[in-house]
Amino acid sequence: MRAMRLRALMLAAVMSGLIGCDDGEAVEDAGASAEDGAVAVEDAGRALDGGRTELDAGDALDGGALTPDAGPDDAGVRLGANAWIRAHFVDAPAYTGTFNSRRRIETPALVHDADACCAKYAFDPQAREEPDVREIGFVDVFIHDLVSSDAFGGGIQSANASGLTLFLADVIVEPNWPAWRSYSETNYDGLVLDHSAAFYAEDLTVRGWNADGAIDNKAPISQFVRLTLEGSGHRGIRFWRPGPHYLVASDLRNEGAYGEGSLLWFRNCDTVEVRVWDTTFNGESTVPGELISCDEGSGPNIVYLTDDPRTTGEMHEMFSY
Length: 321
Known about the structure:
The protein is mainly beta.
């Protein structure tokens, strides 16, 4: 008890010496181009991760010195993928705010705390300028109620930044496309990952996609943690590349009201590998056969892991940050 009182007194003394200051954040209005018509803010100076003054209330006095408390209270605490993405893109141009038409964004870039609607493609990453760093992050983003005048569309597309790596955390995609009819009429998706190199997502939700795929996944590598699919559509996730792909702690559903009603579609079932841990498929712990669709081959290699792959070093570092 005496040690706890000393700790509280020490913390109060330190805190009383801190003076609040402006974090130096500079924002400038990136404006909406005549082509895009979007309202956006480009954040040119976000606070650096690690640039904050932080106190660990678990510090303990040891012989009169303030020393770190290595006790169990701090063990296993994650900042999360959201924090990793923000830190990773701290020097990149950032876009935030409300977007009501297609937004073309040069990579590298961070889209954060954004609401986007009413476009054929809400976000359309580009790779036309230096530096040629083909990465983009999305955190705390809501994409909804998309509109297309032809048979194509999606919340995010990657076709104009070949080799793009995408990082997502706390993103909801609810396009509310028309119900599936055919590829000539309703070739709409939640996300369209043409020509992408890798896709990493934590706490991504796709619901109300209705048309073709919730995720049209053409990335050679994709890793999902706490992915949620809700609603109905022709297909859930379309896997075009062999992988390995990961589905971890996720809940995938396709209620089957439209089209084929499959949950996992594979371009080639003989070459693909999907590694699964703690994930349900329409409520089942393994994928029901009727929810699997193969364009070529049969019997995809779906590996049900016995250990959480986030703890084995095989997944991207953002999932253990």
